[in-house]
Predict the 3D structure of the following.
Amino acid sequence: AQKVTQAQTEISVVEKEDVTLDCVYETRDTTYYLFWYKQPPSGELVFLIRRNSFDEQNEISGRYSWNFQKSTSSFNFTITASQVVDSAVYFCALSEAYTDKLIFGTGTRLQVFP
Amino acid sequence: GAGVSQSPRYKVAKRGQDVALRCDPISGHVSLFWYQQALGQGPEFLTYFQNEAQLDKSGLPSDRFFAERPEGSVSTLKIQRTQQEDSAVYLCASGSDRVDTIYFGEGSWLTVV
């Protein structure tokens, strides 16, 4: 069965600290996609990144970076030099090939204090 | 509009009342999804349309939930005889291609009292 686990319910940091959000997934498929979304208080889900299961190369986008490790079924997300505007709930999600539905984790609420 | 638009943004319904939630996808988007997000939880898949065809409704929790997209554009999620456990945010998403290019609306917040 497909499952996404985000064990960290809430994280609080002070501005400029680095923070890593953990994501562990379960799937029987060899082809799948992993996502991270940001949900600010307004409620909409903002797409951050998509990775496919055949590409384990880490990715960096500005202050954001992602570490995909198939050996541990993890897809962790790091924010470097956090800012107050990063405060939101972050969701990791999984989609298997040939389906069009996303399986979400329960989310991690990040609070960045000035 | 530029994004996915949902209405109403907030709805309070008495238990037993029927509700209808509307989703206006981004113009030209073929795919449309509905998700349900309970408080403190991640979104859960309800149903998926490709144009007017409902290709997957495996996530609808009961036969009280019904979704339609008759002309392949606007979609309505209808909940009959609402119950307290239906209280959640209902998110709509649309996309031009596969799941990796979908855009979410801000959701309709339903509270059943």
Remarks:
- Chain A has a mean pLDDT of 93.
- The interface with chain B takes residues 4, 33, 35, 37, 42-47, 50, 91, 93, 95, 99-107 of chain A (CB under 8 Å).
- Chain A has no helices and twelve strands.
